[in-house]
Amino acid sequence: xxxxxxxxxxxxxxxxxxxxxxxxxxxxxxxxxxxxxxxxxxxxxxxxxxxxxxxxxxxxxxxxxxxxxxxxxxxxxxxxxxxxxxxxxxxxxxxxxxxxxxxxxxxxxxxxxxxxxxxxxxxxxxxxxxxxxxx
Length: 135
Fold this sequence. Notes:
Elements: H1 2-18, H2 24-27, E1 37-39, E2 51-53, H3 58-65, H4 73-86, H5 89-95, H6 97-100, H7 102-110, H8 114-133
Antiparallel strand pairs: 1-2
């Protein structure tokens, strides 16, 4: 009887900590992966221990497609995870062209348009967070 109880307990424990690829924590962008970039404790979403961030989406795709040698799958996934936490989906789509054409980001930054100014402030905050969390 003790063996059966122990076996059931172990199976329940293993089932609870395994989770699926599409868990709720993955939806928020915090998927642990051996190839992911490390989130440093200085970030606003840091915990006491080191955590890894990874997500897929338009920012990660644009990051990878830009062809820079530092644009690893792990780093671009981390950038996407930070984007998921700090930018709306429309803001992410608006920022995608910046990866292939940095001049577009400068055009937005230097325009006198109030909408562009609000977007640029959010993009700059996002960029700062990426710099801290996705090294």
